[in-house]
Design a protein that fits this description.
single chain, mainly alpha, Growth Hormone, Chain: A, 18 helices
Length: 404
């Protein structure tokens, strides 16, 4: 693995560790500390993610135009300013909302640039650079959420200052180490998509990516309920904040520690990206089917473990496919699209989930999500159809030209 990628992984881990001090608590803070309904909490998270979508699109375009270094530093600068302001204005619902939007914008700019850079510094790595980024991201989640139980015993402002401090550390690290990152631009054959043409025509390529992104969006819409409504639901049935933070600690540690086993499993039995998507989405369905009926800590933990294994299969596949389908010079834009879709799921998920819980019940929300997950499985399984059709048409055209 290139040294340049190690710098990326360290920076991402630090950033996510700091962010993980705050994001699991957002709904609880808005609902319990600021006295707002779950629907209002969902709307505020909607705005936070909305600015993240804008940041994702801008970050991808900035990467292609001005490079990774300036794009990442610019995004982190916005996030650092927003986190320090938040530490002093969290008691106001307006201040809280505006600062979350600032953090969303800054972080949104950073992520597509980091993912595009990961693919560029190790182009021959196929899925590996994106999988390593995914592992680093979840190591940060594990470290950050493991600290929540301790931080939650301190005054609330300590959470916000801890978040701001971590963003400050990461921007200093990036400023020192990222300036001279080596980037490789040579073309490589895609891993896991050898059965379809990399240089597919524009229309089938876009259609294939769109089908994958529909599945990606739906699964993020479901996944984000753990960060928004499951947190409140567990509190309502008597689980402690320490119990809830443990779910995320196990999530992050499992992702980091189970990678060797997962790699062997993928190489032997699930060696295509399409199969990895199928297994991942299937495990999402099983996890939420369990979540609809549990009321005890052990049941929630089983659902989280199954969900974690599902995301380990599915999440790294999407940026890998996007990188392989991206035209040269558009890698940042394609990663920006991928990140904007995941952020859109995070944006709409809490809002839809909060409305369903407020109007009906937690169980009804889960049943609706199960229907959505079935749709996600269908679109994922159809994603390579336009690419295969384009390849077949190309072969027929070649044969007809030879016959002529």
């Amino acid at each position: 693995m290139p040294k340049s990628l190690w710098y990326l992984l360290v920076a991402l881990t630090i950033q996510i560790t700091g962010a993980s001090f705050l994001w699991p608590l957002n709904s609880l803070i808005i609902h319990q500390e600021l006295g707002k309904s779950l629907t209002v909490a969902g709307f505020i998270l909607f705005l936070h993610s909305g600015t993240g979508v804008i940041g994702n699109i801008l970050g991808g375009r900035f990467y292609d135009r001005i490079g990774a270094y300036r794009t990442i530093l610019g995004g982190l600068s916005i996030a650092v300013v927003a986190t320090f302001i938040l530490a002093n204005s969290y008691h106001s619902i307006i201040g809280y909302t505006l600062c979350l939007m600032g953090i969303g914008l800054g972080s949104g700019i950073v992520f597509p640039a980091m993912y595009a850079l990961a693919g560029s510094v190790w182009p021959e790595g196929g899925r590996k650079p994106f999988n390593n980024m995914y592992v680093a991201q979840n190591l940060g989640v594990a470290l950050g959420t493991a600290c929540i139980g301790l931080i939650a015993t301190l005054p609330l402002y300590a959470v916000f200052y801890a978040n701001a401090l971590m963003y400050t550390v990461v921007i200093i690290f990036v400023a020192i180490t990222f300036r001279k990152l080596s980037v490789k631009n040579e073309a490589v054959s895609p891993v896991g998509l050898t059965e379809v043409p990399l240089k597919a025509k524009n229309k089938p390529t876009i259609l294939a990516l769109t089908l994958v992104l529909v599945s990606f969006f739906i699964c993020w819409l479901a996944y984000t309920q753990w960060q928004a409504n499951v947190s409140v639901h567990t509190q309502n049935i008597g689980l402690s904040l320490r119990d809830y933070s443990l779910f995320w600690t196990v999530n992050g540690l499992l992702i980091v520690l189970a990678q060797p086993i997962l790699s062997i499993f993928i190489k032997k039995w699930v060696n295509s990206l399409k199969r990895q998507m199928f297994v991942g989405i299937l495990l999402f369905f099983v996890s939420y089917a369990i979540l609809a009926h549990v009321e005890f800590f052990s049941g929630f933990m089983v659902a989280m473990i199954i969900l974690t294994i599902g995301e380990m299969f599915f999440w790294p596949v999407v940026p890998t496919i996007a990188h392989q389908l991206a035209p040269k010079g558009k890698e940042g834009a394609y990663q920006g699209i991928v990140n904007s879709v995941s952020t859109s799921g995070k944006m709409i998920g809490p809002l839809i989930g909060g409305l369903l819980v407020d109007l009906y019940s937690f169980q009804i929300m889960i049943y609706v999500l199960l229907v959505f997950i079935i749709i996600a499985q269908v679109t994922a399984m159809l994603y390579d159809k336009p690419l295969r059709k384009a390849k077949n048409n190309e072969e027929l055209n070649k044969k007809s030209m030879k016959g002529a």
